[in-house]
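Sequence in, structure out.
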Amino acid sequence: MRSKNRAKSYVQLDMDENHQIPPLTMNHNRCLGGRFWCIKDICGLVCVFFTWMLILYAEFVVLRVILYSHPNKIFSVINGIIFQCLAFLALSSHLRTMLTDPGAVPRGNATKENIQLMGFEEGQVIFKCPKCCSIKPERAHHCSVCQRCIKKMDHHCPWVNNCVGEQNQKFFVLFTFYIGLISWHSLFLGINHFISCIHGDWKTCTVYSPPATVVLILFLLFEGLLFALFTSIMFGTQVSAIWYDETGIEALKKEEARWVKKSKWKSMQAVFGRFSLSWFSPFSKLSPPGKQHGYLISV
């Protein structure tokens, strides 16, 4: 159980005006009339743009430089369809991760009136975030970029310009999974085409000049190898964190587990739902979170 100096009963909560943050509108961190979650962070937006440009570059080299002039049309069509499907799923997963509320706690709700309306009783301990003045659920952490407390926060990722938390972790895992697949696929196609051009005629294996082809394919191989390794490692760490029911922040801080840990399979189902093809779909609806993040602990 947490130490008492980190929490107070509702009659003891510090409600001085100097420490309160006015409750924000429902459109905080949202765009398009509140329909989507949006973080207005310059660094994150630059990383998102850079990510999309790298995917578009891979699309150009694979489709135009490698497959367009490949002598085996069946090989070109099959690999073109596979690459396009994986790229579409990767971009869709990226958008879902970026535009989904990761599990933000309402900001500025730790007021006496609100606490009393929520039915808290004397002797119940409430955890209050001093930065966003919110009633802080178990396993929630404050993100300085999102300026909110995030339920079951794993980390803030600039590549998706969002936190990875309770409600969007599935989409982030799918993003790393599909980016890893298209990266390994790009490596295979790039190496195969490079070897074919060396043993054949450079003028017939590509529509571009040999020097330009070499530069384009080498950069594709560098990009593919870099992101294949990075996303594969990230995918593995995310699956491991879900499997053992421990977020990245909890592991980094070596926090003692004060929550009841679920079984490994239940932990996977809590993020992905019941096992089906929807596990691999960034378009599936998320099941509502259970009562695993309580707001209080009795003392």
